[in-house]
Automatic annotation (TrEMBL):
Gene3D superfamilies: 1.10.3730.20. The chain crosses the membrane at residues 27-46, 58-79, 85-102. The lineage of its organism: Bacteria, Pseudomonadati, Pseudomonadota, Alphaproteobacteria, Acetobacterales. One of its GO terms (molecular function) is transmembrane transporter activity. It is a multi-pass membrane protein. This is Guanidinium exporter. It comes from Roseicella aquatilis.
Length: 106
């Protein structure tokens, strides 16, 4: 269950990162509200998952989901560059996340 909660926390990290971009430096109300609400949910779920999972594993997976999710969303929604080196970097992050999961006892 802690892994599922951690994945959902990572998804909320992507949501708050995207909303923060849309807030234009917290100058737009609703994207700013979404950013803060998603942050609270994301941090709360991360905190809950850390009751069971090791700190290093939970934090690494959470930030990795956020990084790769924001990267993909940036490409698909915001039209950001998808060059081979950026894609390789994302693949390496995902590989690290898989290794982190495999090396952590349930």
């Amino acid at each position: 269950m802690a892994w599922l909660v951690l994945i959902v926390a990572g998804v909320f990290e992507v949501i708050w990162a995207f909303a923060m971009k849309q807030s234009e430096g917290f100058s737009r109300l609703w994207p700013s509200v979404i950013t803060l609400a998603a942050m609270l949910v994301s941090f709360g779920l991360l905190s809950w998952s850390m009751r069971v999972l090791p700190l290093g594993t939970a934090y690494t997976v959470w930030t990795g989901i956020g990084a790769v999710g924001a990267f993909v969303l940036g490409i698909l929604v915001l039209g950001e560059a998808a060059n081979p080196l950026r894609i390789l970097a994302a693949v390496l992050i995902v590989g690290g996340l898989v290794l982190m999961k495999l090396s952590t006892p349930d």
